[in-house]
């Protein structure tokens, strides 16, 4: 008997998906179908692939309210947040088309009758492992460029967002994607493990945690033919200088830390305040703004700014991190609080690490968490702030608030992150830019605009098509005469 699982709404425990996990035979069949469809899809004219992708964007636009409600119901996103995700998913189509032409289009350099040509061939079958926090946009950010590049897809959505995943598959088919080009498998970790083991898989594209990325990297040991692209978590710092108003600091720091209930890999986890005549006012403003944030559920009479975590289990795991921070010498400033309405409705919390030892600060930098929990720390000067910001094996996002142009250039060069902003939230990202991390936050394959880069292989050719320049009439050994 197949194993059954459910996707349950974090808002009211409504069952939104109820079905069997994909069996090993079903997984193998899905991958085999994608492999059989690969040649036909590769040979489909690019113009036709682009049109199907644009049909998909049109479908999203026409059914925006429907998918927004489903995202809100299944993963607990506040409606404005879900709608913004849909907007990003729609925008991804034209951005990917532009990136394909700009970064992976066929190039020809001619010199007389000799042509130097670079073509890009699809990888084959790409296994896309999606997250729950952006269940439409993040897997789409890998699926869209992979399809445009001529790959076929096996998609496993998060088991906490399977209903959205199924909706996406149906939307692509209604957009005209041929049968066989995209297959879905469903379930938990065991399903992903079995799919990764398939010898028919040519690429694994993951958005997930450091632990998941490391596990897949180990699983693929000895298989250099399988491309692995990892978009992982972060322990992201905000550095605050004195040349910025406290009210602005409060808005940017709290938005960075608590938007989407802290369930973005780019959310701020640490805020570092350079000690000066304004730093205590900055800290007080952040604390006051945090305490004023409205925590609640979609549909509340007062529109909430912070919604629920994905599950009660996620709240318990976040509480363990909060306790670990206290055990590492932090002091509670805005203490842990859970709303009485639901176990997963967690209020934003702040702890102060200013008095922690160097060893304790290093331990804090090692942690990865997913929720509305912020560590603050006072540091002596800008150099100390940069060193403290970089005191983590992660390297996804970082932000400098205030400062000068030279300070920001120093920050970009020294902080060790793939997304480095100035006077913007850590969560600020543009679809026209790469998005990805260094260190434990990825494996040097940025997504965003550059996702197209890991969806194909370059093939180089030297071409002499004319008879007079054919190999038969040349003396290739002339170079040694």
Automatic annotation (TrEMBL):
InterPro entries: Ald_DH/histidinol_DH, Ald_DH_C, Ald_DH_CS_CYS, Ald_DH_CS_GLU, Ald_DH_N, Aldehyde_DH_dom, Proline_metab_enzyme. Pathway: Amino-acid degradation; L-proline degradation into L-glutamate; L-glutamate from L-proline: step 2/2. The active site is at residue 231. The keyword NAD applies. Pfam families: Aldedh. Residues 5-456 form the Aldehyde dehydrogenase domain. Gene3D superfamilies: Aldehyde Dehydrogenase, Chain A, domain 1, Aldehyde Dehydrogenase, Chain A, domain 2. The keyword Oxidoreductase applies. Its EC number is 1.2.1.88. Keywords: NAD, Oxidoreductase. It catalyses: L-glutamate 5-semialdehyde + NAD(+) + H2O = L-glutamate + NADH + 2 H(+). PANTHER family: DELTA-1-PYRROLINE-5-CARBOXYLATE DEHYDROGENASE 1, ISOFORM A-RELATED (PTHR42862), DELTA-1-PYRROLINE-5-CARBOXYLATE DEHYDROGENASE 2, ISOFORM A-RELATED (PTHR42862:SF1). Belongs to the aldehyde dehydrogenase family. This is L-glutamate gamma-semialdehyde dehydrogenase.
